[in-house]
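If you are new to this repository, start here. Below is one unmodified record pulled from the training split, so you can see the exact layout before writing a loader.
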Amino acid sequence: MAARRHPIVAQSPAPDPPAAGQRWRPDGYFAASLLLVAWAVGVVLAGTWVGDWQLHVATVRTLAQDFVSPPDPMVGVGEGSPYYSPYMLLAAALVRLTGAAPPVVLGIFGVLNTVLLLVALRRFVACFTPSPLAATATLAALLLLWGFRSPGWSGFPDLYSLAHTLPYPSTLGFALMLLLWERLWRLREARTVGGLLVIGGLAAAILLVHPFTAVETAIGAVALAVGGRLPARAWLGLGAAGAAAIGAAALWPYSSLADLFAGASALVGIHRPLRAALLDSGSLMCLYGVVALPALALRVRRDRLDPLALMFVLAAAVVLGALVAGQHHLLRVIPVTMLPLQVAFGVFVGDRLAGPARARLAAAAVAVVLFVGGLAVSTTPLRGAASALPVAWLPPSLAAQVRAAPAGADADRVRGHAPAGATVLTDAQHTDRRLNLLGYYAVNPGWPNPWIGDEAARAADRARLLDAATAPAERGEIARRYDAACVLITRTPAVTGADAVDGYRRIDTWGERGALYCR
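And here is the target side for that same chain:
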C-alpha cells in the first residue's frame, strides 16, 4: 500500500522526473547560492573578522600545537576546554598537516560552511514543498529580514551576522541542525536503523560543535516529530538515538558535558545584549506581522499540528521564559523562533509564484513590499553585503563601519618583547582578546571562562594590580604569580610610572595612559 502523504507536503505538486538523457538545469536557488558563495569568498578575502574570531583562532592554534593535552586557549593553563570541538580539531589537524596559518584554514572553512548551509536549507525547505522558488524566497528571508536591527551574533544566519561569523562553529552547527531536521522528517516515510544512526551522529556532532544550537535542534526536533505524527516506535528510536548522541559526546576527550552544563550560568551576563537587541526599536519579528504570521496561520488552518507552527510556539515560549527569568543565554534560540516564519513565508510566496497568474502577481507584490520595506528600515543587510567588497569601492562612511580598527590594537606592542605563547597581564578585556589572536595567553580570560576554576581570583588580582594604592613590589608579585612575561597598560594612568611594576622594566609609553613593562 502506498504511504499516505502528509497534508503539508502535499501543498505543491512534485516536479516531473527528468526524462532519460535530459540534462540537469540550474534553477533560481542554484543561482542565488552561487551569488552567496561568491560573497562568502569576498568576505573571507577581506578578512574583516571581529568578536569571537580571536578566540577561535587561538583555539585552533593551541590545539594544533598539542593534540594530547592542550591547555585552555585563553589563559594557557590546565588541560582541555569546551572550545576544543571536533570542528576545531579538524581545523587544527589541517594546520598541522599543511603548515597553513589558523586564520587561513578557518577562512576556507567559512566558505565550506556557506556551501553546507545552502545545501541544508534547500533540503529542509523541500520537506514542505519541492518548489525551488520557495527555497529561494526562504533563503532571501533568512539573510535579509531580521527586523529593525540584526543582533550580529553567531548562530543568527542573517547577512550581517554571517559576514562576521562564517567560519564559526555556530554556522556549521546551524547547517547540521537543518540536515538533522530533514532526516527526522523523512522518518515518516522510512523508519530505518540507518536513518536513526544518522540522526544520532548529527546530534552528537551538534552538541559538541555548538551546544546552544543543540538546544535549538531539540526544540525543532520535538516540533517535527509531533507534526510528523511519528508513531510510538519511532519515538523510542529517537530517544535511543538521542541517548546515544549524549553518550558519544560524553566520550569526547577534550571536555566534559558536566562541566559544560555547570558553566552555563556563567554565560548569562555576556548574552544580556541579546535582550536589548530583541526589545530595541520593537520586536525582531515586527516585519513579519503583515505576511509571515498569516502564512503560518494558514498552515495551522490546514493542520493544527503543523510542524513550523509548533516550532514557532515552542521557541517563542523559551524566548519569553528567558526574558521573564533573566536567563539571557537561552535567547540564543531566537533564530528558531524566526526560522519557521521565514520558511512559511518562503513556501507561501514560492508556491504562489508557481501558480495562476493572479497568484503570481500577488505573491510578487507581497515579496517586493516586504523586502523593500525591510531593507528600508534596516541598514545591517547593506553592511553585511559590503563586507565582501574592496574598501576602495565603499563610501567613506560605510567603509569606516565595515573596516573598523580592531579593538585592543595596543596588544600589538608586545610583539618583539615577548615570545609567542608567553603570558601577558593587561588592564582591559579587549586587549586580552587581541593577545589571544596574536598567539599569546592572557592572565585574565577575554571571555567568560568558568572552566579554569580561578577566574574570580584572577579578576581580583588584576583589580589589585591596577589600584593606585598598590605598591610596585606587590604588583610585581602578582605578575610573577602568573609567570607573566609582560604587563601591558592601556588605560590606567596610575600604573605608568617607570618603576610601577617591581621586577619589570618599562619598555614603552604612549600618551598618559599607556605603558608596557617586560622582564
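Two things worth knowing about this chain: Residues 102-125 form the longest helix (24 residues). The chain has a mean pLDDT of 87.
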